[in-house]
Design a protein that fits this description.
By secondary structure, this protein is mainly beta. It is globular and about 50 Å long.
């Protein structure tokens, strides 16, 4: 198994109220959860295969506390169509858990049935000031998010939470920036919703494998 490293940002948009209880290792707001997830890889490699600039998206759902007792976990994976054959293989190995590191540990904790792995256009954007972020899988899913602000917010300072007990990107990965989804829909592979106003968070990740935690 080659050594590998990925660094970038991850975010989701889900059906929970703000803030999503799953990030605090609590049951989701309505007892179940579904949403879209996006990994934007800023730099990385899998052995000699370079992975910087690529994206991986997922649609997911589950019932119960994802960090404790839960059931009916399902995932659909979308790998950036710009990835070459060796890059696709590397991303499948990392995000499928076969290459170790945090994704393997996450797979052990959460489990779930992978209903599909597709090569697809995956579009994303993250504002430099973290005021907005978005993901789009054309014809299948889309989410746009605005960072939380309010009457006591410091201008230019997004809402951050440190040391989450249920960080989807693993322990020690930096502060989560919280947002509100203004658009959130999916219609693909048995996943279907259309909503707005619910929780989103963005967290940096810096992973190593095969032996990284």
């Amino acid at each position: 198994m080659p050594n590998w490293h990925l660094e970038g940002v991850w975010f989701d948009a889900c059906k929970c109220t703000i803030p999503c209880p799953c990030s605090f290792a609590q049951p989701p707001t309505f007892g179940d959860c579904d949403g879209v997830l996006l990994w934007e890889i800023r730099s990385g490699n899998y052995g000699q295969v370079r992975l910087g600039g690529l994206r991986v998206a997922m649609l997911g759902s589950f019932v119960g506390n994802v960090w404790a007792e839960h059931s009916d976990a399902r995932l659909a994976v979308f790998i950036d169509e710009r990835a070459g054959e060796s890059q696709q293989g590397a991303l499948r190995a990392i995000f499928g858990g076969q290459a170790g590191g945090w994704p393997a540990r996450f797979a052990e904790l959460v489990g779930g049935r992978v209903v599909a792995v597709e090569i697809s256009p995956v579009e994303s954007s993250v504002a430099d000031d973290l005021a907005t972020w978005s993901v789009r899988i054309p014809g299948k899913a889309e989410a746009t998010v605005e960072a939380l602000t309010g009457p006591t917010s410091t201008p230019g300072e997004p809402v951050r939470v440190h040391n989450l007990p249920g960080a989807e990107v693993g322990p020690g990965q930096g502060a989560a920036v919280w947002g509100r989804a203004t658009t959130d829909f999916a219609d693909a592979l048995g996943f279907s919703w259309q909503r707005s106003g619910f929780s989103s968070k963005l967290i940096p990740f810096d992973w190593y494998g095969p032996d990284g935690a």
